[in-house]
Amino acid sequence: MGKAQKYVLLGDATYPLQDWILKPYQEDKNLTQRQLRFNYRLKRAHSVIENAFLRLKARWQILLKCDDCSLELLPTLVLACCILHNICEAHDNPFNEEWLEGTEPTELPKPCQPAPTAMEDGQAEQVRELMCQYFESCGEG
Question: Number of folded domains in the chain?
Answer without folding.
Answer: 1
